[in-house]
């Protein structure tokens, strides 16, 4: 549901975060409409504020039978285990933020990015009048994945088993640049390491 250009966010909290406090922040933020979690079918993106409650949030991510899996942002104490990352991404997690290091402004940015990614994926899969599926212009795959073209290139080579030095030589970048690219992905998505970043890229079809 979109109201005058606003993003509809269904909010789930663990009880350690004040529902009233979070809802007051949303009331003062012109970009969002905050919905109770029970009305998540009307939302565009889900927000899980779950300090010390990652498992409870993961359980709450399960979509009701027949419902669409909505993109979600998970804010909890990091890092997640590889198994938790796998479960969360399978249930729609688009962004992970470490509760102890995250401001509400960063949460807002993550919500907007998750919703934009979902819209781009929907547009990419939408049939076009000439048959087949509509695709974004060449080089715009990052709109649907959250990765830049250069990040996709590096992650794809990592997925193939290439080492940093090999990627550096192949792409004609310094090893430091390659490491910075990988670090940027790991930090932005809240992954524990490059292995989780590659696994996520493979799962969403970016690689």
Percentage of residues in helical conformation? 40-55%
Order of helices and strands: EEHEEHEHEHHHHHH
Overall pLDDT score: 79
What portion of residues belong to β-strands?
15-25%
Q: Strand pairing plus helix content: what structural class? A: alpha/beta
Domain HTH luxR-type: 140-205
Keywords: DNA-binding, Transcription, Transcription regulation
Protein name: Response regulator transcription factor
Pfam family, one: GerE
Can you characterise this structure?
There is one protein chain. This protein has 207 residues and is an alpha/beta fold. The protein folds into two domains: 2-125, Response regulator (Rossmann fold, 3-Layer(aba) Sandwich), CATH 3.40.50.2300; 142-203, Winged helix-like DNA-binding domain superfamily/Winged helix DNA-binding domain (Arc Repressor Mutant, subunit A). Helix content is 46%, strand content 15%. It has nine helices and six strands, in the order ββαββαβαβαααααα. It has helices at 19-28, 54-60, 82-90, 104-125, 142-145, 149-159, 164-171, 175-189, 194-203, and strands spanning 2-3, 6-13, 32-36, 45-50, 72-76, 93-98. Strands 1, 2, 3, 4, 5 and 6 form a six-stranded mixed β-sheet that branches. α6 (149-159) packs across α8 and α6 (149-159) packs across α9. Residues 133-143 have low confidence and may be disordered. This is Response regulator transcription factor. It comes from Myceligenerans salitolerans. Keywords: DNA-binding, Transcription, Transcription regulation. Pfam families: GerE (PF00196). Residues 118-145 are annotated as: Disordered.
């Amino acid at each position: 549901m979109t109201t005058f250009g606003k993003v509809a966010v269904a909010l789930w909290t663990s009880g350690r975060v004040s529902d009233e406090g979070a809802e007051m922040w949303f009331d003062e933020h012109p970009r969002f409409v905050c919905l109770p979690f029970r009305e998540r079918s009307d939302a565009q993106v889900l927000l899980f504020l779950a300090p010390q409650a990652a498992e409870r949030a993961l359980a709450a991510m399960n979509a009701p039978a027949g419902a669409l899996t909505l993109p979600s942002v998970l804010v909890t104490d990091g890092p997640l285990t590889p198994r938790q990352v796998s479960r969360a991404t399978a249930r729609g997690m688009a962004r992970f933020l470490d509760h102890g290091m995250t401001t509400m402004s960063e949460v807002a940015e993550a919500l907007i990015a998750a919703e934009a990614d979902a819209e781009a994926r929907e547009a990419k899969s939408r049939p076009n009048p000439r048959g087949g599926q509509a695709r974004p212009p060449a080089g715009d795959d990052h709109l649907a994945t959250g990765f830049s073209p250069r990040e996709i290139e590096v992650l794809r080579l990592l997925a193939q088993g290439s080492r940093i030095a090999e990627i550096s030589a192949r792409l004609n970048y310094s090893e430091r640049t390659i490491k910075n690219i990988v670090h940027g992905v790991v930090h932005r998505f809240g992954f524990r390491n490059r292995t989780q970043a590659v696994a996520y890229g493979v799962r969403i079809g970016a690689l």
